[in-house]
Design brief:
53% helix, 136 residues, mainly alpha, single chain
Length: 136
């Protein structure tokens, strides 16, 4: 889950605003204001518990394995050279993982605690340990 929230921070559009100097901690303070979701991002309970639980869960760290079991994906991989080409470029190389790796991608304990407190139910539901940020 670490990758997801940090990637949102990296994609934060600060053009024409005074938010370009924000740290990840500042981003969390501003957007993680409501338990269970980012405003105006989404509400976990509404999506998962009220509307419908997901059939498939896709995680950054197991992207390929999680996607390959989705029947539509498997079918497209077997039928389309163009799809296979994009699959290799995007999934096999996990381009999403690259944007959140390296020295710029470090949580402080304080930042990790903010994310965990705001999204504790998601951490538990998807099998992430509170201290998982230490190992990524």
């Amino acid at each position: 889950m670490k990758s997801y929230y940090y990637s949102l921070f990296l994609k934060n559009d600060c053009s024409a605003s005074e938010n370009c100097h924000w740290t990840f901690s500042d981003f969390c303070d501003h957007y993680l204001t409501d338990k269970g979701g980012m405003l105006p991002h989404f509400r976990f309970e509404e999506i998962y518990n009220v509307i419908k639980a997901p059939i498939h869960v896709v995680k950054y760290e197991t992207l390929r394995d999680d996607l390959i079991v989705i029947p539509m994906i498997e079918k497209k991989l077997n039928e389309s050279e163009e799809f296979r080409s994009e699959w290799f470029r995007v999934v096999e190389n996990n381009i999403f993982d690259k944007e959140t790796k390296g020295e710029t991608y470090k949580y402080t304990e304080e930042d990790a605690e903010k994310v965990f407190k705001a999204f504790e139910k998601q951490f538990h539901q998807f099998g992430y340990d509170e201290n998982s940020w230490r190992y990524l």
